[in-house]
Amino acid sequence: MAEFWLISAPGEKTCQQTWDKMNMATSQTNLSTNHKFNIPELKVGTLDVLVGLSDELAKLDSFVESVVRKVAQYMADVLEDSRDKVQENLLANGVDLVTYVTRFQWDMAKYPIKQSLKNISEIMSKQVSQIDNDLKARASAYNSLKGNLQSLERKSVGSLLTRSLADIVKKNDFVLDSEYLTTLLVVVPKTSYPDWQKTYETLSEMVVPRSTKLLFEDQDSGLFSVTLFRKAIDDFKHKARENKFMVRDFQYNEEEMKADKEEMTRLSTDKKKQFVCMQLSKLYSLLNMRKSSTMMLMSNLKTHQPHSQLERPWGPLVRWLKVNFSEAFIAWIHIKALRVFTESVLRYGLPVNFQAMLLQPIKKNVKKLREVLQDLYKHLDSNATVIDASMDIPGLNLSQQEYYPYAYYKIDCNLLDFK
């Protein structure tokens, strides 16, 4: 992905001259890749409104960026083992983020330019606030489902002291429906198997001789059954603990065990429905690759007709994340456009006459690029230097620590933080 600098400078004789001068000074020396950033003729309003709006847009910019990053990060969390698929699903209006930013066109349908700047910003604020609220609700529901499933999964694979025994024991392992006898389950360390066999019959009175049976074992322990009279249960448990044999608190109940299994299946199914069946996803990827290869071959033979890509079988949560990431990102870039417009009018005055420009700095030449821009535009504000962000100068953007003689905003498309 990429970082961009969105700047503006006043028009000279024409805005084209402003563009040509900046582009020649930076792109030909390999400092940056540049694009014009098209902003339509927006309603200016009064100076007081612009000053107030400048501060409001700074806060809105920060809020919307946080929502964009949250949606992107949550998509990465939901896709889990398919994180390599995240970037290809972070699209804006159907294209990758760099393409959208570098070819930015104002969306007249979503944000009518006949409305005031304040009204347009309020439309964006309400739209992204709704996305943020919906994300919180959906994330809460999904995390709850995921947490419940993980809890059940831990019970099915953990230590014999804590794990569910529903898939281990069988009905014929127990003495059931007896008025006097019962069957207990005891966890015995593997190193203590000989001691168990020697002592279990004498740990308490009324233990049925030769009634123990090894039902299951993991790396560390074994699960043994033992049959005894009900009146001896408490004494047996006490003596077993003294010998480091742990009696599991378990009663065989087919209905409860069946319900646990059904709950595990239901949660697992619900989770898969929320994002994607991974095997299907891999199959669709394979089919798309084969399809692309076939199309290229046909193209070489000049006999091919275009076909649409096979649709990936994403579930409702990921579909929602894809759609609303796009909406939030589009709103964010429009807010950047509003900020550049507002800041440029406040700096350069009326009538509106400035050129907005998008620079993608070459990483190794960032410092040099900043110096070239400073030389180009220092005449706009001879006092422009690094200003403390805590200083409050109405109408000027001081949300970052640096203030330049030209209007400047950063657009960072590196949205994911993989830890």
TrEMBL record:
Q: Which domain of life is it from?
A: Eukaryota
Protein name as catalogued: V-type proton ATPase subunit C
GO molecular function annotation:
proton-transporting ATPase activity, rotational mechanism
Instruction: State if Transport is listed as a keyword.
Output: yes
Q: Is-annotated flag, keyword Transport? A: yes
Q: In the UniProt record, which is one GO cellular component term?
A: vacuolar proton-transporting V-type ATPase, V1 domain
Species in which this protein is naturally found: Sinocyclocheilus grahami (Dianchi golden-line fish)
Q: How does it assemble?
A: V-ATPase is a heteromultimeric enzyme made up of two complexes: the ATP-hydrolytic V1 complex and the proton translocation V0 complex. The V1 complex consists of three catalytic AB heterodimers that form a heterohexamer, three peripheral stalks each consisting of EG heterodimers, one central rotor including subunits D and F, and the regulatory subunits C and H. The proton translocation complex V0 consists of the proton transport subunit a, a ring of proteolipid subunits c9c'', rotary subunit d, subunits e and f, and two accessory subunits.
Keyword vocabulary terms for this entry = Acetylation, Hydrogen ion transport, Ion transport, Transport
Record-linked InterPro entries: ATPase_V1-cplx_csu, Vac_ATP_synth_c_sf
* Lineage, top ranks: Eukaryota, Metazoa, Chordata, Craniata, Vertebrata
Q: Which family does it belong to?
A: Belongs to the V-ATPase C subunit family.
Q: What does this protein do?
A: Subunit of the V1 complex of vacuolar(H+)-ATPase (V-ATPase), a multisubunit enzyme composed of a peripheral complex (V1) that hydrolyzes ATP and a membrane integral complex (V0) that translocates protons. V-ATPase is responsible for acidifying and maintaining the pH of intracellular compartments and in some cell types, is targeted to the plasma membrane, where it is responsible for acidifying the extracellular environment. Subunit C is necessary for the assembly of the catalytic sector of the enzyme and is likely to have a specific function in its catalytic activity.
